[in-house]
């Protein structure tokens, strides 16, 4: 019997969002190697986000706009690699991360995306 590591995550879980997505990352024996390979990209993105947060606080101080600083400074939200956080300053990191992922042939990813605006019906046990 083979052991697998599976990671499942969702996106668009607010009913106000048109699409709901569910993704599955399935890793077999390479889980340690895979983690070691992608960790540097997470670290790079985290460090860039941290520096951007510090720069934002510094800019607000220079503009004498002190109202937003406490909220930004105390924000302890855990850092995640997220599609919605990709921008012109970090997109190279995300591209390199995807290239690294693709180098692991036994690591698999699949997704299901549901369009909430599209009406579906069940026909002979299948959604159409």
Please write out the topology.
Elements lengths: L4 E7 L7 E9 L3 H32 L6 H6 L16 H12 L5 E8 L6 E2 L2 E2 L1
Antiparallel strand pairs: 1-2, 2-3, 4-5
Helix pairs in contact: 1-3
Description:
There is one protein chain. This protein has 128 residues and is of the alpha+beta class. The protein folds into two domains: 1-29 and 107-128, no CATH class; 38-105, no CATH class. It is built from three helices and five strands. The strands form two sheets. The protein has a three-stranded antiparallel beta sheet, with no helix packed on it. Strand 1 (5-11) and strand 2 (19-27) form a beta hairpin. The longest helix has 32 residues, at 31-62. The radius of gyration is 20 Å and the shape is flat. It starts with a strand and ends with a strand. The model has no long low-confidence stretch (mean pLDDT 87).
Low-confidence stretches: none
* SS strand fraction: 15-25%
Number of helices: 3
Strand order in the sheet with the most strands: 1-2-3
In short:
The chain is an alpha+beta fold. It is built from 3 helices and 5 strands.
Keywords, separated by commas or semicolons:
128 residues; alpha+beta; 2 domains; three-stranded antiparallel sheet; two-stranded antiparallel sheet; 3 helices; 5 strands; DUF3800; DUF3800 domain-containing protein
């Amino acid at each position: 019997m083979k052991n697998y590591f599976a990671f499942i995550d969702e996106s668009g879980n607010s009913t106000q969002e048109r699409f709901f997505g569910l993704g599955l990352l399935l890793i077999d024996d390479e889980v340690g190697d895979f983690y070691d390979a992608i960790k540097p990209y997470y670290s790079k993105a985290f460090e860039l986000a941290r520096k951007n947060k510090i720069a934002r606080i510094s800019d607000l101080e220079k503009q004498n706009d002190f109202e937003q600083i406490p909220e930004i400074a105390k924000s302890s939200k855990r850092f995640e690699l997220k599609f919605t956080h990709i921008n012109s300053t970090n997109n190279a990191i995300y591209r390199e991360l995807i290239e690294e992922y693709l180098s692991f042939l036994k690591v698999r990813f699949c997704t299901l995306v549901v369009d909430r605006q599209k009406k579906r019906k069940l026909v002979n046990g299948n959604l159409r």
